[in-house]
Amino acid sequence: MLMTLIYRALIALVLFFILVNIWREKDIRNQAVGAMVTIPLLLRLLMLK
Amino acid sequence: MTWRGNKATAGIILAVALIIAYAAAQSFLVMAQDDVIVKGPGVSEIRMLGEYFSGLKNTAGDTEIYILRGPKPGGRALVLGGTHPNEPSGYMSAILLIENARPQVGELWVIPQSNLTGFTHNDAQEASPQGFTIPTSWGERYFRYGSRATNPINQWPDPDIYIHASSGQRLSGSEVRNLNRAFPGRADGNLTEKIALGITELICQENIDLTIDLHEASPEYPVINAIVAHERAMPMAASVAMNLQLDGINIGLEPSPANLRGLTHRELGDHTDTLAILMETANPSQGRLRGRTDEALALTGKDDGYVKAAQLGRLFVPYDEGGHPLEERVGRHLTSINEFFIVYAEMYPESPVTVEGIPLLWDIEKNGLGAYLLQPK
Prior knowledge:
Chain A is built from 2 helices and no strands. Chain A is an all-alpha fold. Chain A is elongated and about 40 Å long. Chain B is an alpha/beta fold. In chain B, a hairpin with a 6-residue loop joins strand 7 and strand 8.
């Protein structure tokens, strides 16, 4: 259980950094790539998949 | 063309990503919705497996046990469906027992979804359907098509090598989530081992005389359309196989391998007093030679690749354009179970199990599965 909480905390941290990067990114293609990465991270953070 | 982005484009792109994630989540959450199982006329009581091993309570592995008691005392038989939730004839046979069987002597215990957490996801990269629909005279019943293994959401990570606790047998890491490699189970083990222990404890505490575990396998697998019996159950299984052959049902008989550990027919036979049996039917939707894997394949068992494989002599079951429909696979299981009850009563007259109302192969092939599924209230 503790391991799962640490795992989810790491996912949340990575997700946060990606969101910050998307927000600061000046190239729309890189913004799109970042957004695609957020989808599986979000599903895993919520333990849906 | 300029690709200049700004905070407005970031917001729009993230909104699109959120919509996609929401749609994907809805699809995955469909698998979390429980299947409807209707209490048939023979059901006396429903218990939870966690009552037999407290470590399962309030976990994703706790699952329902349906108890069907006859008016006269006798023996006790247990039927396991859904040990592998991607083998629909196993759990559909168990559900048909719950909704139709009426014990007259002894008790019939049924666990329709032995690995319940396996029903909440699909095997990755197998393109399996999420479920299938059975038409009935009053409407439709929907059932999930799950995974062979426990959901990794509920049990992770997989080790590089899975070592079976009581034997030291080494298997590939993903087998750690295979319920039929986890028996007899372990109290301080992972979720799959706890489910296995719950079933082993149920058999011990309730003095289950006969245990039948229902499975399916791909047509290119050697143990197919077969009974696998622990050595103590072999005389009974041999009689059943002969009787089924006389009835026109071609079925093989295999001894439970002594060095293949963790399976019901080996461990339940070794660690409890029950007579342990496992049965297999032919399901092309599990095989490596299949084409498109969809609801139709799970229901009809029709696949051109398997027709070709049969023509090349590569299969262990007869296979033609007619496939192996779910009706046939469920009918084989239920007819075999019925035969086991008959032979068991002959061999152990002090504790018979006599059950009426079991739909047999010829009934199901004539009337369809839907004729034996009750309408939910």
